[in-house]
Amino acid sequence: MRSMRPFLPWVVWGVAALAYAIAIINRSSLAALGPAAQDHFGIDATTLAAFPVIQLVVYAVLQIPVGVLLDRFGSTVLILAGGILMTIGQVAMATVADVWLAILARVLVGAGDACMFISVMRLLPEWFAVRQLPTVSQLTGLIGQAGQLVSVVPLALVVSNLGWMAGFSGISATVFLVSLLAFFVVRDRPGMGTGFERVTGRLGSLSRNARSLATAPLTGAVVVSPPATEMIETQQADGKRTLRFWGKARRLLSLPGVRLAYWVHFTSPFAATVFLLLWGLPFLTGGVGLSPSTARGLLTLTVLSSMFAGLVLGPLSSRFVERRVWINVWITLGIVVTWVAILLWPGPPPMWLIVVLLVVMPLGGPASMISFEVSRSHTPRSFIGFGTGLVNTAGFTSALLTILLIGLVLDLQGAGSPDNYSLGAFKLAFAVQIPFWALGLTMIFIEQRRTRRWMQKHGRRLR
């Protein structure tokens, strides 16, 4: 009689992924509310851009410190801490009237959001087999995109019909309930207790008897374990071994595979992040001239495209391990070509080209998940949280810089408010993405060659 596969890994992952989806809702809660936020607070484009920029700055800056805390305290603690911060931040966002207090609220939301994704990714190697990780990682991203879908349409409808306070109060209540669920369900690894069990000091039988799916790989699967910590340089200070913040960063970045993962994440997802987080709706309505309802409907297309891509890219990156970086590169080139066609099109782009953009551009998000597979292949296990946080800063760094630059370029053209938006101004503003793509692709090619040489030197196969 065949024994049942353990179900607990899927339950733990499901609740953690749900917490990540809620974080995405919080992160993107202004995605379809740009004009509404300008009217609510009476602000221009640069100030509007400050909301997501400051939020992303906080997110990106905290990734590495959160990674250090993650290696020390585990995923459960960080997921719960992130939930508390986002709850407080959205309560403030719902109630304050001053724009600077609202920005402070987004700081709290960004800090809470910073805890979520890398905490979920840290759980996966503890509960799943190596051959399953690419697929489960993409499924995690897919569930997160479901949160993006909620922020695009339902939240906008709630705010427009029930008001600003009702919309953001509803988000804060949802965050609290999901955090409470995580408190009773999420475990760092088999044999460890939930948050509730840690507080009470009683380990339940389900936690005590939990089993991981991390069994031996099937015959023919390509599996190479991460390098040992000893394979990276050891740094000494005053005769003592140091693993403090900058020491760990330098040691980790001495691995070309980690640098490759960083640039992979830097390059492919930022265009979709910029579009969905802030500037997509203003571009479609104020630039292209679509109605708000049509624009929101098209934004849901980006989320559906990203979700479908996640289902496809997980098995692909697992099957073609040696070519997974090239999958990311070709998707990025497709995004670049589509955007350049939009920018060079004389006059308003036709609807079919807009649809192509909104189908192709979101593929960069699932493609960026490949960076975490690359990072996992090259990061020593004792550095995994730190390494995931380091790589995760990349795409958000490029995104926040692009968001800010688009707002500045619009203001410099006198097109910084909904009344003054124009297609020509948006085309010039969105052109600021091109140098980021050029830098990212160049560094990918450089670091991939260096990684290949490093792998050959150490007798390893994965890039």
UniProtKB/TrEMBL annotation:
<protein>
    <recommendedName>
        <fullName>Lysosomal dipeptide transporter MFSD1</fullName>
    </recommendedName>
</protein>
<comment type="function">
    <text>Lysosomal dipeptide uniporter that selectively exports lysine, arginine or histidine-containing dipeptides with a net positive charge from the lysosome lumen into the cytosol. Could play a role in a specific type of protein O-glycosylation indirectly regulating macrophages migration and tissue invasion. Also essential for liver homeostasis.</text>
</comment>
<feature type="transmembrane region" description="Helical">
    <location>
        <begin position="384"/>
        <end position="408"/>
    </location>
</feature>
<feature type="transmembrane region" description="Helical">
    <location>
        <begin position="47"/>
        <end position="70"/>
    </location>
</feature>
<feature type="transmembrane region" description="Helical">
    <location>
        <begin position="293"/>
        <end position="313"/>
    </location>
</feature>
<keyword id="KW-0458">Lysosome</keyword>
<feature type="transmembrane region" description="Helical">
    <location>
        <begin position="325"/>
        <end position="345"/>
    </location>
</feature>
<feature type="transmembrane region" description="Helical">
    <location>
        <begin position="428"/>
        <end position="446"/>
    </location>
</feature>
<feature type="transmembrane region" description="Helical">
    <location>
        <begin position="260"/>
        <end position="281"/>
    </location>
</feature>
<keyword id="KW-1133">Transmembrane helix</keyword>
<dbReference type="InterPro" id="IPR011701">
    <property type="entry name" value="MFS"/>
</dbReference>
<dbReference type="Pfam" id="PF07690">
    <property type="entry name" value="MFS_1"/>
</dbReference>
<dbReference type="GO" id="GO:0022857">
    <property type="term" value="F:transmembrane transporter activity"/>
</dbReference>
<dbReference type="InterPro" id="IPR052187">
    <property type="entry name" value="MFSD1"/>
</dbReference>
<dbReference type="GO" id="GO:0005765">
    <property type="term" value="C:lysosomal membrane"/>
</dbReference>
<feature type="transmembrane region" description="Helical">
    <location>
        <begin position="164"/>
        <end position="186"/>
    </location>
</feature>
<keyword id="KW-0812">Transmembrane</keyword>
<keyword id="KW-0472">Membrane</keyword>
<comment type="similarity">
    <text>Belongs to the major facilitator superfamily.</text>
</comment>
<dbReference type="GO" id="GO:0005886">
    <property type="term" value="C:plasma membrane"/>
</dbReference>
<feature type="transmembrane region" description="Helical">
    <location>
        <begin position="77"/>
        <end position="97"/>
    </location>
</feature>
<comment type="subunit">
    <text>Homodimer. Interacts with lysosomal protein GLMP (via lumenal domain); the interaction starts while both proteins are still in the endoplasmic reticulum and is required for stabilization of MFSD1 in lysosomes but has no direct effect on its targeting to lysosomes or transporter activity.</text>
</comment>
<feature type="transmembrane region" description="Helical">
    <location>
        <begin position="351"/>
        <end position="372"/>
    </location>
</feature>
<feature type="domain" description="Major facilitator superfamily (MFS) profile">
    <location>
        <begin position="12"/>
        <end position="452"/>
    </location>
</feature>
<dbReference type="InterPro" id="IPR036259">
    <property type="entry name" value="MFS_trans_sf"/>
</dbReference>
<dbReference type="InterPro" id="IPR020846">
    <property type="entry name" value="MFS_dom"/>
</dbReference>
<feature type="transmembrane region" description="Helical">
    <location>
        <begin position="103"/>
        <end position="124"/>
    </location>
</feature>
<feature type="transmembrane region" description="Helical">
    <location>
        <begin position="136"/>
        <end position="158"/>
    </location>
</feature>
<keyword id="KW-0813">Transport</keyword>
